[in-house]
């Protein structure tokens, strides 16, 4: 009961703070963010020291090199983090926008106005810069945020949250607009996920296991993507040079991210023309290829692909390739094995492109572009709080807009219903 | 396990059908809806006969007169239902709208295009016309719908769904775009609510108990409002004639609905001028009044209001009244006891109105208009599938737009990420 009460108190404080945050003028929010950036640079050494505590414990726990790297904060990375806060400051204020307005025959003027969601709970894993990213975006969008980071980055996260707290206080705001869950009790998450009357949205950021655990236990709406099994389909009428460039980029430019391609689908009529070259390209990139029988005809060193491969997010230099007899088969494959994240077609045929766009039910559909563009910054949102493969609320890369709701405002001059 | 499998099969069929529905052209959907309206009139007698079976059972179960009335279908009501389908036909197609479009510096053209949500589950109580309302709106918006009506209206619902099935088949569509859960097993709902990979959205329509049960057991996102505790605040600078008209209308015009006023808040500086008249008005309307001490000073026949009253949705000719010392106190009252449904201010002071609009965190905020206007039809949506007091996905009255999601379409000419 101690933990439950502690979490309720924390969420109640955040709910109260969300009313303060919602009413902050754009100027005030920008002033706070600018103070955050300054304070972050000023406290750079303190943050590095806090981070070193985390790194020492991580070393003792024998984290992988990749995990250690994600966890590490250097003065340079802190500079970058402060710069990112200033980028958020520059974004236009998403609160109070008139999304639509119209007048009714009875004279009522109705407008749909953007308002903050309220309290956002972010549950994330080791990268401590997520702390600042999320805090700045929630603040800019007039929301209060409750942060629950991984225990590996606890001291780093706390040092970063202290920077936000100091900036808020120096602007006269005492409310818990940005708060960090400090208990190490793993049940804290489950307690928070029950508080649907206090918290408006949960965004889990991390591996599939974390996200599933959150989604399965939450009474609060969750926006999420479990994984990114992204496809590129090379159509019969593709520009083959373009196709090779895209197929290389989508897989190899940064294989460890959710918008990297995991499966390449090739129309059988051009398989002979494109697969041998692609085989060379992937071999040079040290990318393992797992293919069906026809693929292996053109890339003899490829290993046999299994049913399981089609449904696997490798997040690595591994690619599965299937030769399909037509676009329908490609779309069926994507429907069956895809994760509705991002799928691309390479084709010069406009009708094929439009059919693909219509029939592929994914949050982002690309025509003649790499799946790697599916990203809030690449879409011009200026920031990304997450990517959703759900259909409710926000879908695809989410910027500030994903943190907004709206209200209807109806202005009359005494109208009553008859 | 039998029930679970049956529900999974039903949801899988709906998911398959949702792909068919999503690709239907506006013309096809309108043709189907027009056939539905025709067929409904043609089968009017059969529907009445089915309804009589329900009525006979309801009589045996001793339903209240009000419940019997809600359940009853007459040839006239069926005509009205068919007409409502034609109204939905006339609405513009919400699918495939370009919600936004922009070009990136690298030449990528990004557009945000509306797409159907997929499969909608509607859980509702006795009124059988909800069956047709929901089926027509889901069809128009390119969604598949699973309907779970109350057992009292089972035969009526089935007869109405048969009309939709026949119209769909006659247009060559065999898929389960509109389906009705036919088992009487009450656990069917709980089984369906687990199928978050097959069903995209749940809309419970009915009493608070039903809605709470759905929200508590669902792994699928739910849009809902538990209740409507709507307030009217009469400001010190209100036009008093307007205030009385609105305060009467909001309470008495139709007290049994969610957008009727339950609590009236009156600024103390004008209480003396407005409450005695309102007392007469409510007495003439046979509306019971429960007031705080100051209210009872001006309406001596009013009974004492209790803390519980402030949080009660009467849905009846009962009103609680509180005299507040200023607008802040009114807003605090609304924040504490309101249900974020609809709240109104009556004032001539523009600044007061804008402060109220900003600070009242409800899905609809009215200025100088009756709360009764909070309604999809009154907002000009042409139809209403529900009202949401949640902040995620849809908020306030929901028309076709509330049944839509979107996808990002990115068109390039070979762009890759560097």
UniProtKB/TrEMBL annotation, chains A, B:
Subcellular location: Cytoplasm
Keyword Cytoplasm: yes
Keyword check for DNA-binding: no
Pathway: Amino-acid biosynthesis; L-proline biosynthesis; L-glutamate 5-semialdehyde from L-glutamate: step 2/2
Biological processes, Gene Ontology terms: L-proline biosynthetic process
GO molecular function: glutamate-5-semialdehyde dehydrogenase activity; NADP binding
Pfam family, one: Aldedh
EC number assigned by the record: 1.2.1.41
Domain Aldehyde dehydrogenase as annotated: residue spans: 6-283
Any one GO CC term of the record: cytoplasm
Main location: cytoplasm
Catalysed reaction equations from the record: L-glutamate 5-semialdehyde + phosphate + NADP(+) = L-glutamyl 5-phosphate + NADPH + H(+)
Keywords: Amino-acid biosynthesis, Cytoplasm, NADP, Oxidoreductase, Proline biosynthesis
Signal peptide limits: none
Highest taxon of the lineage: Bacteria
NCBIfam families referenced in this protein's UniProt entry, alphabetically: PRK00197.1, proA
Family: Belongs to the gamma-glutamyl phosphate reductase family.
Summary of the function given for this chain in its UniProt record: Catalyzes the NADPH-dependent reduction of L-glutamate 5-phosphate into L-glutamate 5-semialdehyde and phosphate. The product spontaneously undergoes cyclization to form 1-pyrroline-5-carboxylate.
Name this polypeptide is given: Gamma-glutamyl phosphate reductase
Organism: Candidatus Danuiimicrobium aquiferis
């Amino acid at each position: 009961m101690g933990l439950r009460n502690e979490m309720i108190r924390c969420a109640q404080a955040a709910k109260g703070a969300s009313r303060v945050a919602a009413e902050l003028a754009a100027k005030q929010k920008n002033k706070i963010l600018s103070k955050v950036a300054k304070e972050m640079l000023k406290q750079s050494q303190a943050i590095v020291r806090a981070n070193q505590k985390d790194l020492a414990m991580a070393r003792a726990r024998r984290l992988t090199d990749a995990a250690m790297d994600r966890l590490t904060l250097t003065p340079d990375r802190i500079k970058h983090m402060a710069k990112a806060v200033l980028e958020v400051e520059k974004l236009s204020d998403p609160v109070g926008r008139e999304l639509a307005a119209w007048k009714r025959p009875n004279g009522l003027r109705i407008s749909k106005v953007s308002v903050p969601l309220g309290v956002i709970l972010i549950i994330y894993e080791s990268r401590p810069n997520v702390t600042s990213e999320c805090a700045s975006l929630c603040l800019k969008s007039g929301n209060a945020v409750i942060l629950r980071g991984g225990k590996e980055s606890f001291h780093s996260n706390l040092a970063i949250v202290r920077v936000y707290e100091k900036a808020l206080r120096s602007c006269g705001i005492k409310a818990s607009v940005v708060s960090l869950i400090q208990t190490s009790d793993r049940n804290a998450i489950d307690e928070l996920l029950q508080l649907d009357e206090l918290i408006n949205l949960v965004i889990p950021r991390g591996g599939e296991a974390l996200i599933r655990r959150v989604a399965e236990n939450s009474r609060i709406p969750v926006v999420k993507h479990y994984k990114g099994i992204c496809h590129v389909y090379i159509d019969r009428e593709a520009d083959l040079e373009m196709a090779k460039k895209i197929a290389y980029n989508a897989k190899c430019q940064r294989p460890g991210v959710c918008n990297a391609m995991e499966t390449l689908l090739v129309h059988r009529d051009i398989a002979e023309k494109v697969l041998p070259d692609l085989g060379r390209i992937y071999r040079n990139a040290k990318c393992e290829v797992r293919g069906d029988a026809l693929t292996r005809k053109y890339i003899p060193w490829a290993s046999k692909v299994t049913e399981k491969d089609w449904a696997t997010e490798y997040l690595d230099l591994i690619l599965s390739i299937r030769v399909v007899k037509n676009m329908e088969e490609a779309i069926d494959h994507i429907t069956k094995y895809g994760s509705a994240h991002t799928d691309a077609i390479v084709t010069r045929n406009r009708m094929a492109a439009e059919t693909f766009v219509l029939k592929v039910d994914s949050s982002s559909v690309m025509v003649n572009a790499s799946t790697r563009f599916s990203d809030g910054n690449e879409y011009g949102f200026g920031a990304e709080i997450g990517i959703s493969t759900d259909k409710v609320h926000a879908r695809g890369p989410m910027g500030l807009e994903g943190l907004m709701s709206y209200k209807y405002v109806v202005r009359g001059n005494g109208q009553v219903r008859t």
